[in-house]
Design brief:
Structural class: alpha+beta
Largest sheet: 3 strands, antiparallel
Helix content: 40-55%
Distance between the termini: 60 Å
Number of strands: 3
Strand content: 15-25%
Strand order of the largest sheet: 2-1-3
Shape: rod-shaped
Radius of gyration: 25 Å
Amino acid sequence: MNPFEQMDRVINRILLSLVVFTILIFLFSCSNKVTYEIYLEHQPQEPLYVTDSKSDAQDYYDEYKQYHSDMYITQK
């Protein structure tokens, strides 16, 4: 058996593994991420706070709602 044929098989397996690994990384990185943004009604173009956690958004809202009566949370 030619040693170069065996080396060719190893290289093909490595390349195939890299391609599969790259595709998996791409698929998992493109998942839909939900973000929560807190705005004031009179400043809808500028979010006060942006987070990926619903509980963080709710904590922020609860803490500062007493100072801003026109505050609201949106989900994107």
